[in-house]
Amino acid sequence: MSSSHILSAFDDELKYLMRRISEMGGLAEQMVSDSMRALVGTDAALAQKVISDDVIMDAMEREIGDKAIITIARRQPVAADLREIIGALRIASDLERVGDLGKSNAKRVMAVQGTGIPRKLARGIEHLSDLALLQLKEVLDVYSSRSAEKAKSIRDRDEEIDAIYTSLFRELLTYMMEDPRNITTCTHLLFCAKNIERIGDHATNIAETIYYMATGAQPEGERPKDDTTANLGAVAE
User: Fold this and answer.
1) Which of 3, 57, 219, 220 has its CA 20 to 30 A from that of 159?
2) This prediction's pTM
3) Which CATH number applies to 8-227?
């Protein structure tokens, strides 16, 4: 955050936005973690908690948006101060989407309750989730420090999650081809895996926003991508 202002109330408003973003980030992490535990353990009660928490996430995003608009109108910020407020709006939007994706995975718990999830597949999707959660935690830590270097480093690691997602995608297709009875469960897991990959994308979006907030510029070069699932054909037996 920029240096202190003549009006301490302006500093308080910016600190309020920072605090609410941090709280929203903590809830987003919890929703993703709980949704994965609910999915692997077919825990319907925990899944319902995640679904209910999404209402709180939506309210927090609206609150941050309202506060940001009032602050812009009242203070007419420029340069770093304006980037601070616009950045908060962008990050709140990404965190709200992370919550939505966690809720989406929680909704699939009931669909796989009857069949359960094979342990090998559970390990794969847990690994993917662990990577996405680590990336989300790290980027929220960087939001507090405003390190442009660390934000760029997180952004440049986006392909790691893409590569694991592609590998899991192949594995799920193979399970479906080997035994048609796996098709329903694996289809739900494919959607869940894609949701987790998208959570990684939103964490990368946040990293890019933090870089912009700290430097006033966008990161150079294309974002690294390693999701090749669109190019996959039938898996050979």
Assistant:
1) 57
2) 0.90
3) 1.20.58.220
